[in-house]
Amino acid sequence: MSKKYIRVLCAGLAAWLGAVALAAAAPGAASAFDREFGADFLDQYWRLHPDDAIAAGYYAPAGTLRVPDAAERQERVQFLETSLARLHRLPAAALDARGATDRLVLENQLRSELWSIRELRSWEWDPSTYDIAPPIGLLLETPYAPLEDRLRAVSARLERAPDYYAAARAAVVHPTREHTLLAIEQNSGALQLLGAGFDQQVAGAALDPAQKSLLAQRAAAARQAIQGYIDWLRGLDAPPGADAAAGASNWRSFRLGARLYEQKFAFDIASGGSAAALYQRALLEKERLLLRMDVLADELWPKVYPDAARPTDRLEKIGRVIDKLSEQHVAPAELYEDIRRRIPELTRFVQDHDLLTLDLGKPLEVRVTPAYERGVAGAGIDAPGPYNPGATTYFNVDPLDALPPERAESYLREYNRWMMPVFVIHEAIPGHYVQLVHANQSPSRIKSIFPNGAMVEGWAVYGERMMLEAGFGDDTAEQWLIYSKWNLRSVVNTILDYSVHVKGMDEDEALRLLTHEAFQSDEEARDKWRRVTLSSVQLTSYFAGYSAIYDLRERLKASYGPRFSLKRFHERFLSYGSAPVQVIEQMIDKDGL
Ligand code: ZN
Ligand code: ZN
Fold first, then answer.
1. Minimum-distance ligand to the CA of 427?
2. Which residues contact 476 (CB under 8 A, 6 or more apart)?
3. Prediction pTM value
4. Which ligand minimizes its atom distance to the CA of 417?
């Protein structure tokens, strides 16, 4: 039901990078598409997806908790089918570029939701689908209205919690063990959210006594329902009287399998190509990168290890050079300043090299991550939701003081002298932040609410290479080697995801691939393994988008010859908003550069 974002390197970004100035839609320019699929349509959509609405900053249905039973799914199916029929009656030829791309993006979204209910059916095998906490957490911590109004919405939601969890237990028929354990963990977090801190917040609110006691009763009943769900899930994990081995055979595999994987890939990536072809391409790309890294490591060896013999194994040699270079990093206390000073530095580089117009308007604000948004150590863009376009975009930097020294050290080694600028390029300039600013200039509700993840991530990954090609980092072997390690991660994400979900790769093989062939730490590799058991296709979006954008650029370069302008290509590419690369390509072929 609700979208779930596992916090990754690009923290928080997944959701609303496409956020745009909705209010700024040009007056009088409403197209046929906007009239049919404008505010009224979206209001209907949000009423059927109230959890997603809250995450998007649209609070009209905030007090609605939908009970996830068969009737609820049927209602969504009906809405999706009706909407698709309306969409198909809209003549595509009459639409302008934005309307036409919006239409394609919305059709893909509606078809994808239908497929998800009918074919993917994660509602019956992923128990972590069911968790009332995330929207309640957002309502409690987002001051969009007085606390009392927000608590009334929470109270209305809690009233239905017992029915909600009863429906969840009826829906889950053949779960995976991995999602069951995740559901136990997440719902234990829900109990905490509704614990003592919640009671205090209620006690301090200006609600009348009757409302307060009603809310307290509902919270108590909700806690009981959550605990009941957790106990039931625990029972699935260790069925009474069954030994562990017998229980294990009842789990559904977390692996998606070829058929569902290709279908999900077609909806989520929307590249027009197959997952199998992208996997083959990633294998070639990995070898190409390792060949390059081999040459760079040879070049650097005498410099970083003047007295040591060079290993004959190329992976060992590359790994040891990376290891040595990683020693050059800032102290924990300098991390924030290190990131902050890079924003103007990168801005100047982009302008001096005429890569892109950077009319950034309100500058990006670098800040220490507020306590309630901190997760695992990390940093990244925190963009406002599509219904909150005036809000500031932040570059959050998690402080490292809460980490044990060896974890902080490993983080800083990863974000060493050459890696950190690549990371800031990815997140900010000319990566995610710049893409967001450009998307804002062609206001599109649909593309901001349903951004294409491969385009968004692909642009950021493309930006890294483009900057290095333009001479950022002075073209040194050190810069290219560390960049290549970073780029290899995107490539290997694709290989890993496909290998695990389609080809049955096991944990040992996966860890070996990540640590031995992609130079990742044991900890990073174990986190990645967990992520690949809980998600599918998302890990391929970085390389899918990057390779498609790179190919498009090279093709246009060849066909335009001396008339090709890199800057014009970038601005043209970004002007259509967060649409699939394939859709943007069609528009560029039609409109020209
Ligand atoms: Zn990213
Ligand atoms: Zn160190």
1. 1
2. none
3. 0.91
4. 2
